[in-house]
Amino acid sequence: MRGSTLTTNTIRTRPASGLALLGTELSVLFRRKRTWAMLAALAAVPILIAIAVRLTRSGSGGGAGPAFLDRIENNGLFVVFVALGVCVPLFLPLTVGVVAGDTIAGEASNGTLRYLLIAPAGRIRLLAVKYVGAAAFCLAATLVVCIAGALIGFALFPSGSVTILSGDTVSLGNALGRSLLVALYVTVSLLGLSAIGLFLSTLTDVPVGAMAATIILSVTSEVLDQLPQLGWLHPWLFSNYWLGFGDFLRDPISWANFVTNAELQGGYIIVFAALAYGRFAAKDILS
Amino acid sequence: MTAAELAIETRGLTKRFGGYAAVNDIDLSVPHGSVFGFLGPNGSGKTTTIRMLLGLASPTSGEVRVLGAAMPRDNASVLPRVGALVEGPGFYPYLSGADNLRRLDSADLYAPSRTRSARVADALERVGLSAAAGKKVKAYSLGMKQRLGIANALLTPRELLILDEPTNGLDPQGTREVRSLVRSLASQGTTIFVSSHLLAEIEQICTHAAVMSVGSLVAQGTLDQLRDVGRPRARVQTPDPQLATGVLEKLGMTVQQLPPDSVDTTVVAIFGDKPVEPDTVVAALVKAKVRVRGFAVESPSLEDRFVSLTGEGFNVDH
Asked: Residue A119: which of B108, B126, B185 has the nearest Cβ?
């Protein structure tokens, strides 16, 4: 160990914005093997669906199975929508629960939380960076399903112009644009759950606990959404509009579900970000 | 000493967890430019105190001033000037040593991104980890992690370093390296606050020390002051302990009687305020017909002082 060669002229006089922290947050998240494993599992869903449909050649008759399944043989792009329909209720919330539940509790269990805070990252800034990181994962996870679905779909099934749900036929470019809107819809749908995960993550130093609690809440919301007796509650459940992305596959495109969903998710973000802040701002960090 | 000369100052600092006071009403005064040893057995409240100094935990009552500003209120302006190792190193096991430092450095809003790689390389070299910079931390030994933790505290020039048990897990060679690093940093004017449960490890480098026991500060001052507080003691070996005790007490000494061995009893007497020459003590004993079979005067070392302040043994006193 020896003395420093650096001069004292290496301290900034004004604080940085925190973009560097966001940069390393994303790099830590996306260089982690666990993140890649979850993204690979998500990519496997459309691939399995496409291969299963290709091998069985069941024709368009049955009507059983996930939504849009019978349309895949006409156009490979529908693999994307079938896969999203399968992933949205379970696989996506599962992976988002893992990432969002890990945000603060994961740092606490590594012992890095105290070092981030004495750096000092600032507690509010750290929460914001953590949330943006989780939101980036929502987008990445959705895009992985879409891209894997489109690639395998076009490899195994016809491409070209697409007959959408309303019966109109649109160009492939138009349909790809709609797919991006669907991806945006699904990403936005997951933001409320991410905020819940962030809040739960501030409650514990055990990441698995926060992850499990987030996933359980997601499943609970979906179960409550299935009970007609609780109809009055449904508009307030964060999972209520999760499967409403079919609107983008009709002509004319209806934005009603998207707007209502975005407002609902925004409400969840505000409430749970405030709870996370209230919990974390003055919390004793004893991890 | 005025407040401006203190790098760390606490007044009535208390932290309670439920009914139990982990830190109880402590007044620390750490002068600028000192190497301050913060001593105490495991569980005596050292780390809890350090957490409050760094704004990680809020005091139940009392005040903390670090580098002249109130904590935790002024976290944002104080912490960039403070480097710390708290309760062992904490790292992402799946990142390399250098990537871990880059990550933690990016959280310091006053650390320029431009010089990040150079500063990380420099800090790694200072703790002798350059060769392992690209290795994942999960492959590091405990001692290497500890060194990486120290490197993290050195990423930018600091006015104050708070090192909690910096030699934990280090081999004797590493311990010596930490000591020489602390000396070199101190010679550049950095105030260093270093906690340890092993007095011997830091006695050689400290200018000041404080001793914690069961959440309270039991002694504080320069090393010389702490040594002086331990009064000399007379040790008398005699078959007449009662008689000897009476004589010694008359001389203003405080007597502790050790359990008797085969024939003799050892009576330990701490000298009182009134200065008494050792030969006077022996003369008085002999005059009272005490059969003196052994007599010694000993001044306690800092180690004895530390043990007498904190109690001996391995029990965590809660």
From this structure: B108
